[in-house]
């Protein structure tokens, strides 16, 4: 018997682990651990609800295939310790994750497995390109820190060495139907989490495959022209499924490859790999802010920004959409993030933490990459003097103000020109705050020396 633990791979087919496990020809105990360190306080958040909905779908997929997926609640190492003590488990298989918490969790799991004399196998499956093979292919002594040369080499790697998706599904594996009562009782889901999961099951959204098919059929060809438009019209709607692992990056890549408009979308998959690459190969990716003195920044305006009460229409509309739905188009994420970090001179870490809670498609690595870019920190970030003007962005990407009218109906009476401009009570002046931000970030990044 083996133990397989689902993590950022909430799907029932095309998992690298499934390909390896099928070859072992033994029954497996398939498990999802609802980790209190990750879920505490997030049950009702957009990111938590998105996770629960996808988990409910995964459990249904197992059931429909006549297989069993076990759900337990508690510290992963404690749960694994109990299972190894009570079941004839030959080894543990998981997909690798690269965040600081994931690394600490897996070190603890490795220690537990070693104590029981069992192997823990971690299989890379998050990225589209195999990051280890790609890095060897690049023949670099130092990892990439700039996207453009990374992308050129990545494209060459994908052309010559891409490993296609697998065809093994949960139907082809044998799962263990029951676990010992002591473990099941001790690590049972708390009542509030059971209720939240049942509620999420009743609200299950679209099947990821249908979202992908719809995008490739009607959205891909116009993606490059429409992706910056505010609202849902130009977006793929795939990010939450990719980030939760409900769709593999391979499945998406193969669905769009060679179709009109695919180059622009594949570039987004490359950006995703770029940030995952940073998480693996640049040790300070998750602590980059410690390289700088951020004391000139304060959280003075953070609450107004998070509540959508800045007086800048497109910022307040964006935060209204985010707070109400957990959705936010990528360009508006950049506009809102840059406004917080530059115009409002707030540490990016506050906005990063807020997006972690609010985004339905939240992913730690990609979220951090976006915030580092917007705040001119990190690798291949926006130059410190690049500060998106919210009024200009709003007029360029939503000329009629339809987006603002949707999320801030109190502004519906304004003309197409007036609706984009800050209100008289706006908490900062855009021109003055831009000049101040340039000076402050010039100092933070050491350009005044």
What does this protein look like?
The protein is mainly α and 449 residues long. The chain folds into 3 domains: 1-125, HUPs (Rossmann fold, 3-Layer(aba) Sandwich), CATH 3.40.50.620; 126-165 and 208-282, Serine Threonine Protein Phosphatase 5, Tetratricopeptide repeat, CATH 1.25.40.80; 287-444, Orthogonal Bundle (DNA Cyclobutane Dipyrimidine Photolyase, subunit A, domain 3). 52% of the residues lie in helices and 6% in strands. It is built from 22 helices and 5 strands. It has helices at 16-24, 36-39, 46-64, 76-86, 100-115, 131-138, 147-161, 181-186, 191-202, 208-219, 223-226, 239-244, 249-256, 262-281, 302-307, 313-325, 330-343, 348-358, 364-374, 390-397, 402-407, 430-444; strands at residues 2-6, 28-34, 70-73, 91-95, 120-123. The chain has a 5-stranded parallel β-sheet. Strand 1, helix 1 (16-24) and strand 2 form a beta-alpha-beta unit. Helix 7 (147-161) packs across helix 14 (262-281). The chain is globular. The mean pLDDT is 94.
Which SSEs are present, and which pair or pack?
Elements: E1 2-6, H1 16-24, E2 28-34, H2 36-39, H3 46-64, E3 70-73, H4 76-86, E4 91-95, H5 100-115, E5 120-123, H6 131-138, H7 147-161, H8 181-186, H9 191-202, H10 208-219, H11 223-226, H12 239-244, H13 249-256, H14 262-281, H15 302-307, H16 313-325, H17 330-343, H18 348-358, H19 364-374, H20 390-397, H21 402-407, H22 430-444
Helix pairs in contact: 3-9, 4-5, 7-14, 16-17, 18-19
Kindly list the characteristics that best describe this protein.
449 residues; mainly alpha; Rossmann fold; Serine Threonine Protein Phosphatase 5, Tetratricopeptide repeat; DNA Cyclobutane Dipyrimidine Photolyase, subunit A, domain 3; five-stranded parallel β-sheet; 5 strands; globular
């Amino acid at each position: 018997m083996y133990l397989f633990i689902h993590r950022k791979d909430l799907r029932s087919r095309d998992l690298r682990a499934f390909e390896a496990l099928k070859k072992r020809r033994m029954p497996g105990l398939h498990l999802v651990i609802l980790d209190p360190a990750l879920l505490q306080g997030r049950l009702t958040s957009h990111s938590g609800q998105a996770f629960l909905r996808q988990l409910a779908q995964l459990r249904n997929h197992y059931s429909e295939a006549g297989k069993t997926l076990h759900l337990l609640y508690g510290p992963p190492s404690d749960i694994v310790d109990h299972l190894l003590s009570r079941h004839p488990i030959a080894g543990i298989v998981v997909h690798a994750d690269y965040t600081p918490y994931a690394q600490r969790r897996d070190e603890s799991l490795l220690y537990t497995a070693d104590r029981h004399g069992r192997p823990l196998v971690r299989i890379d499956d998050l990225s589209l390109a195999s990051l280890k093979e790609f890095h060897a292919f690049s023949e670099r002594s130092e990892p990439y820190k700039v996207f453009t040369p990374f992308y050129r080499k990545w494209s060459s790697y994908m052309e010559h060495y891409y490993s296609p998706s697998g065809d093994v599904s949960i139907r082809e594996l044998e799962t263990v139907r029951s676990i010992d009562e002591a473990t099941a009782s001790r690590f049972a889901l708390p009542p509030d989490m059971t209720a939240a999961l049942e509620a999420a099951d009743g609200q299950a959204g679209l099947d990821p495959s249908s979202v992908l098919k719809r995008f490739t059929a009607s959205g891909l060809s116009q993606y490059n022209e429409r992706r910056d438009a505010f609202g849902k019209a130009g977006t793929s709607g795939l990010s939450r499924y990719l980030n939760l692992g409900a769709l593999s990056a391979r499945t998406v890549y193969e669905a769009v490859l060679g179709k009109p408009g695919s180059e622009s979308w594949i570039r987004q998959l490359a950006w995703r790999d770029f940030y995952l690459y940073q998480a693996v190969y640049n040790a300070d990716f998750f602590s980059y802010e410690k390289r700088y003195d951020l004391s000139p920044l304060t959280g003075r305006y953070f609450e107004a920004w998070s509540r959508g009460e800045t007086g800048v229409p497109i910022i307040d509309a964006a935060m209204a959409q985010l707070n109400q739905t957990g959705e936010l188009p990528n360009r508006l994420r950049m506009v809102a993030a840059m406004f917080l970090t530059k115009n409002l001179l707030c540490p990016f870490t506050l906005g990063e933490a807020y997006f972690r809670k609010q985004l339905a498609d939240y992913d730690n690595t990609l979220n951090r990459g976006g915030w580092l870019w917007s705040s001119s920190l990190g690798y291949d970030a926006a130059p410190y003097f690049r500060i998106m003007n919210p009024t200009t962005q709003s007029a360029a990407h939503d000329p009629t103000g339809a987006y603002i009218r949707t999320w801030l109906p109190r502004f519906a009476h304004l003309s197409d020109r007036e609706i984009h401009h800050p209100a008289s009570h706006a908490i900062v002046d855009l021109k003055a705050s831009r000049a101040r931000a340039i000076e402050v970030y010039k100092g933070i990044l050491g350009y005044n020396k």
